[in-house]
Amino acid sequence: MDGALRLSEADAAFAERLAARLPAGRIGAPGAAHLEEPRGRWQGQGGVLARPVTAEEVAEIVRTCAEARVPVVPYGGGTGLVGGQIATEGPRPVILSLDRMTAIRGVDARENVLTVEAGAVLADIRAAAEGAGRLFPLSLASEGTARIGGLLATNAGGINTLRYGNARALCLGVEAVLPDGRLWHGLTRLRKDNTGYDLRDLLIGAEGTLGVITAATLALHPRPAGEGTALFAVRDPSAALDLLARARDRLGEGISAFELMHRQGMEFLAETLPETRLPWSEPPEWTVLIEVGLAAGLDPAGALEDLFAEVAEAGLAHDGLIAQSETQRAAVWAVRERIPEANRLIGAISSHDISVPLAAIPEFIARAGAALAEIGSFRVNCFGHVGDGNLHYNVFPVLGRSRADHEHQRDAIKRCVHDIVHALEGSVAAEHGVGRLKVPDLERYGDPAKLAAMRAIKAALDPAGIMNPGAVLRAP
Amino acid sequence: MDGALRLSEADAAFAERLAARLPAGRIGAPGAAHLEEPRGRWQGQGGVLARPVTAEEVAEIVRTCAEARVPVVPYGGGTGLVGGQIATEGPRPVILSLDRMTAIRGVDARENVLTVEAGAVLADIRAAAEGAGRLFPLSLASEGTARIGGLLATNAGGINTLRYGNARALCLGVEAVLPDGRLWHGLTRLRKDNTGYDLRDLLIGAEGTLGVITAATLALHPRPAGEGTALFAVRDPSAALDLLARARDRLGEGISAFELMHRQGMEFLAETLPETRLPWSEPPEWTVLIEVGLAAGLDPAGALEDLFAEVAEAGLAHDGLIAQSETQRAAVWAVRERIPEANRLIGAISSHDISVPLAAIPEFIARAGAALAEIGSFRVNCFGHVGDGNLHYNVFPVLGRSRADHEHQRDAIKRCVHDIVHALEGSVAAEHGVGRLKVPDLERYGDPAKLAAMRAIKAALDPAGIMNPGAVLRAP
Known about the structure:
FAD-binding oxidoreductase (chains A, B); 5-stranded antiparallel β-sheet; FAD-bd_oxidored_4_C (chains A, B); Vanillyl_alc_oxidase_C-sub2 (chains A, B)
C-alpha cells in the first residue's frame, strides 16, 4: 500500500499534461457544485475538472492519472447523500464528470434493453423507455438530476425496488474504465452469461473506487396495463406489515410500491412547503402509500377498494383514499416525494438510511424511539420503503431549536440508531451507499472477513489507490 | 504466483493431519462418483474426501489446506457439465463435499425468504417453499440431484430465468468460507444493503475458485394463482420470437417459461425413451413450449387460446396444444425435460451452452447450420430457453455413426459454433459455467480487461491458488 501514500496533486502542471492528451475543451476548473455536498456537510476539494466525451477519453484520463498517481473522483449528478462524490482529504483530485456523455444509444422494445451512456439523467432514461412502450422502473426523488453512472455506482434503490429490484437488478452490462485505464467492453444484452467472475456487480455499488462506469445496458420491463394508488391510515407499523402481507396474498407481485410515512413528515410539509395538498386535515400517526400495477383484465382501483375493506374490517386501517384520477395519483405521490425536501428545509441533526428484516420494523421503530428519548428531545421523521425493510430515520431538533444546538449529540444519535439496526441484523447503508460518511460505520459493523476481502480486491485492482480514495474504504 | 506452483498433494499424511483437526468421521476416500464427469469426458483425481457437517468445519478444512497449500475442490451434487467439480491435473486435491450440510434452516413466508445449507438439494428447497405457499423459481433438469451450493457457484439458469432471473437473482445472502479459511457471515435477509463491495455476487458464479458457499438466504416469490402450459408448432425460430413478443404484449411478465425445441429432440426421444408420450405423431420442425402464471381473476388457458388464435391468424403457428389438466401439463413438460437424457443416450460429439441477443437467434441457427455442413454430416439438436436467448446447440453423429468417429472434428465443431456466437455478441458459457471445459474459450473470447481483473482478484483472494485450481482460470 506504499504507493497510495504517494498520491500526487492534480495541479496546474498535471492539468496541462492531461489537456495535451485530449481533444480541446475537456479540461477546466471545478465549479462550486462539484465541491458541495447536497446537505452541506462538507466542503470538497478538486484540482482539475475533466469532462470527457467518449469512453476512450475517460480511459485516457484514468491512464494518465494512474501513471502520475493522481486521484480521480468520478462525478455524476452530484445528488449522493453520503459524500461519495466529494473529496475531503488527500491531494486535490481530478474530478471526472460524466455530464457530457448523456446519449441514449438505443431502446430495443422487443429485447427489453436500453443502452445508455453513464451521464444520462434518470428521468430522461425513464422517458425514453416510456416512449418505446416500456418501463425502466428505477425511480427516486432525485431522478431529474441523478445520472445513471452514479445510480449504478451506488446501487441506488428507490420506490420500486420492492417489485423490480435495485439498480443492480436492472443492469445487464456495463462498459467501464478500470483503475489502470483499461476499457472493459462489457455492454452485453444477454440474460444468461456465465463467462467468468461477476465484474459488473462488483463495479455496481463500488462507488467509483474500482473503476468508472462509462455506459450500461439496462433491463426494461413491460408497463403494467393499469395502475392504482392509495393512501391507507394504518394503526401502527405492525399493521402496515400485516397490510403488506394481505396485499401480497391478494395481488402477488402486482404491488409496485409500499411506502410508510409518519405524521411528522406531513407536519414538516405543512410547515415548509405549505402549497403541498395534504391528504387529510388531521394526519394520522402512520400512513401507507400503496401502488399496484396490474395486468390487462384486472381493475386496480377495485382491487385497492377490496383490500381496504378487508384491512379496515381487520382493524389494521381506519381511513383510506384511493386515487380516482391521474391528478389525484400525482397529488398522493407529491406528498411522499416532497418529504426529503421538507426534511432539508427543517435541517436534520442526523439522517439514517437503514434497513432491517421486514419483521423487525416495528421493534426497530420502538427501540430507536425509546433510546433517542434517553439522549434528548427530538422530532423524528421516519418514512420510506417499508416494503423493502428500508426506512429513512431522520432526527430533527424540536421547534425553536436548530441542528447547531445538537452538534455535540450527533455522534451519539447516530451510534444509538445504528447499534439497534446492527443488533436487528440490519444494514446501516441500505440504499444511499457508504461514501465517505459511513466509512467508520462499515469498519464498526462490517463483517471482518468481508472487509478483508474488500481491501484485498481494492489493492489488487487499484494498487496505487487513485480511484475515489477514501470512499467506501479508508485511504491507506 | 510462485506460491501456486508449490501446491501439495492431499496424501495420507495430510489426511491424518486434517482428521486430527475435525470430529471423527469427516475424512475418507473419494468414491467413484466424485471422480466422474456426468458426460464421461474426463476422469478426475482426488486424494482425500472431506464431508464436513458445519460451516466451522468447512473453515477448518480450508484453513488447513491453505496452510499446507493443498488444493480444495468443492463438490455439490456432481451434476455440473463443464468439469468444474472434477480435478484433472495438478496435485491430488481434497474433495470437499457439502452433502452432509442439507438443512433447510427456515422458511419465512411473510418475508419471502428461505435459509438453507449449501448441500440441500434443489427439489427439496422447491418443496419446502411450496409447503409454505411460496415459489422458489429456480428449476432445471437436474433439480433432483443438484445442490444449492453448486447451483449458486455456477449461477445456474434453467427454465424460469425469463421471469425470475438466474440463481444470482434469487439469492439475498451467502455464508462462505474464503480461501484463507475465514468464515464470512453474509446470510442477510435484507432487500437493500449497500455496505460495501458485492462479495455475494462475486462468489456466485466463481465456481468455487474464490471460496466455498456454506449456506444461503434465498428469495421466494408468490405462487401465481393459475398456470397454463401449451405447445405451439411455429413456422421457424423467427416466428418463435414474434410469438414471444405478442405473448409479452398480452401477458406482460406473466410468461414463466418459453422454450424452443427442434424436431430432432422429439426424434431422439422416440429413439431412446419410447415411453415418452409425444405431443404430435408427425413432429413439426420447431415447437415452442410456453408457460404462463397469472394473478387471480385471470384465466391462463383462455389467455393461451386467445394467443394461439392471434398467432395462427398471423401465420406464426400452425398447430397448438393447450394442456387441459395437470396430467397433460406434466406430459408436456416431460417432453422438454427428457431431451437432455435422450441426448446423453445418443451421445453428442460436442455440446454448446450458448446465448445470443434475442434478435440474433434466427441468424445464429442459420449460420451455425450452414457452417457445420461445411465440416461434415451431423444431426443437430437445438433446444432450450429461447426466451433468454439461451440455446443448447448439440451436435451428434448421423444414424449409424458414433461420436468416436468424429473425435477428430470436435475442436473444429466447437470453434465453428463458438466463433459465430462471439461474432453475434453472445456468450459461449450461458448457464452451465466455464468449469475446466471452457477455460480456453474464455481466454479466446473473453474481454482482455475483464480477464486481467479476474486474475488480479483471484490472486488477491487466493494467493496460494488452492481453491478449485484450473477451473474458470488456468492454474498459473
